[in-house]
Amino acid sequence: MSEVLQPPLSQGAGYGVVVGLGVAFAIVMLSCMIFVTRALKNAFGEDNKSTETFMVANRSVGTGLTASAVISSWTFTSALLRAPTTICFFAFLAIQAKLKAPNAHTLLEIIKVQYRNIAHIVWITLALLNNIFNFTSMLVGASTAVSSLTGVDIIASTYLLPLGVVVYTYWGGLRATFLTDYIHTFIMIVLVWFTIKIIVMNEIGNISALYDAILKLSASGPVECNYHGSYLSMTSKESLFSCIIHITTNFGIVIMDTGFWQKGFSADVAAAVPGYILGGNAYFVIPFAFGTIVGLGALALEQTPAFPTWPRLMTQAVSGGLVLPYTASAVAGKGGAAAILLILFMACTSVASAQLIAVSSIISFDVYGTYINKSPTDKQLIRWSHIGVVGCSIFISSFATALHKGDVDLNWTIYMLGIVVCPGTFPTCFTLLWRGQSKVAAIISPIIGMLCGFAVWFGTAFEMYSEITITSTGKTLPCMYGCLTSFFVPLPITLAISLWRPQNFDWDTFLTIGRVQSEHSIGRKFNREEYFSLERVRYMKRASRNAALWGAATFVGQVLLWPLPMYGLKTIMSKGLFTAWVVVALLWLWVALIIANFLPLIDGGAVQIWAILKIIAGKQKRDDSGTSTPSEVVVEAVHVEEKS
Q: What is the DSSP track for 285-347?
C-alpha cells in the first residue's frame, strides 16, 4: 500500500494565503485604485464612472503596461508554451481593429455591426464558452495545487481563490485589471531567483553538473519513446501531439477571448503592436526557462537527500500535483513551498481579473446594452458590469466544483479546451481581414465546426478505447483530432459559402460604432479627420505589416526552426548545447523581468506620474479642452519621426 505524503504546508498557511492575503490584496488594490483614479481624473480627466474609462481605459494604455498585461494574463497554472506565436499574430488583429473600428469596445460589437443579430448571438455564445472554460481550467488547476500544497479543502479553495479578485475588479474595471496585471508580474522576481537557486545549490552546483545528473537517469528511469530513453532528447510522439493541441488551442483561446480584444482596444495606437509583441515573446520564456530548469532540477534533486520523498521516488499521484512544491521545499525549505503558493495565488488572481472583466463586458455591452436597454446610461452599463463580475465568479466556482466532483483534472480541461474555443477562430479573423465573408458563412461555419469537433472527439475516443468516459476523452489523440477538426472545418465552409455569395462589406460601416458620451466623459470627442490623418493611417498600416512579419517570424523561429527539427534529429543533446540552452533561457528570463516590471515605468508611466505630481503640487492646471495625454504625445512623436 502506498504511503500518503503530507502536504509541505499547513492548512493555516493555505487559508492565510487564500483568504487573508486575498482580502489584504483586495484592500491594497482598492486603496491604490482610489488614489490612481482620483489622480488620473485630476490630471487627465479620466473618470472611472465613465464607461469609456471603465471598459477600455480611454484607449490610452502605453506599450509597457500592455506588454505587462499580456505577460500577466498568460502566467497561470495551465500556461501553454506556444502562446507567443498567437499573441504576436493578435498584434496584427489589434492594429487592424484600430484602423477599421477605432471606437469599438468589444469584439462582439464589431460582429453585430457586420453580421447583425443572429451572428452576434452566436459569437456571444462562443466568447462566453471561451471565457468560461479558460477561467474554469485555471481555477481547477490552481485549487488542486493549493489543496496539494496545504491540505485546504479543494472545494473551499475553488470558491475562495477568486473572492478578493471580485472585490477590486467590481470597483475598478479594466483600469484595475491593468494595474493588478502590472503588480502580478513582480512574481517574476521569485521565478528568476528560483531558477538560479536550483542550479547553484550544493546538490547540483552548476549547469554542467545538472547535465551530468540528468544524463545518468536514462539508465535508471528511461523516458518512453525518447531516443535511448534520455531526458535530453526530444523524440516523444506524445509530446509532439500535445504540442499540436496547444498550438491550435492557443489560437482559439487568444482570438476568441474578448478580454484580449478589450486590452487591444485599450492600448494606444502606438502601443498595440509593440506591446503585444514584447509581451508575447517575454511571456514565452516563463514556461520555457521555468519548465526546463525546474523540471530537470526536480529530477536531479529527487536522487538526493534534499528532496522531501528521498530515498523514494515520486509516485504518479505525487508528481501530478507536488513536483513544483517539493522541488521548492528542497531548494528553500517551507519558505520555498510558501513562495510557490504565493506564485499560484498571484497567477490565479491575474487571470481571474482578466476573465471577470471580459465576461462582465459581454453581459453589459452585448447583452444588456443590445437586447434589454438599447439606450443605457453609464450608471446602468457599469451596474450590469458589476452583476457580470459577481455572477461570473459564482458560476465559474460552481462549474469548477462540478468538475472536481466528476474527477476531471487540469489535463482533461486543457486538452479538450480547443474543441470548444477553436471553431470561431477563422471566421473571427476574416471579420477584420476579408470584406467578402458573408453573414451566412459567419453563422454556419463555427456551428458546424464545433459539431464536427465533438463528433470526431467522441468517435475517436470510442473507436480507440471502446468507451466514452472522462478517461478516454482525456487521452491525447482523441483530443488532438477533435481540436484540429474544430479549428479547420470552419475554414473551407466559410470560404465556399462566401465565394459563392460574397458580402463585400464596407469597412466605413464600423465607424457607426460610437464612443459612449456622458456627464462623466471629459475631454475631446472622437474626430474622424484627425484620427485618420495621413501620418496616423500610414503609421497603422506600417505597424500592421510589422505585426504580420513578427507573427510569421515567431512561428518560424519558435516552432519550425526550433524545436521541431530536434524531434526528427534523434540524438541526445550535447553538454555544450544544453549549456547554451540554459544560459539563453536565463538571459531571456532577465529580459522578460525588465520588460514586465520596469518598462511600464519607463514608457509613459514616468511621464504620467510626473504630470500627476505637478497637478497635486499645483504647478500645472489640467486642461479639459482636449490637450493630448502623454500617450497621445508619444503617438504624435512617432508620426513626426516617421514623416521626417
A: HHHHHHHHHHHHHHHHHTTSTTSTTTTSPPPHHHHTT-HHHHHHHHHHHHHHHHHHHHHHHHH
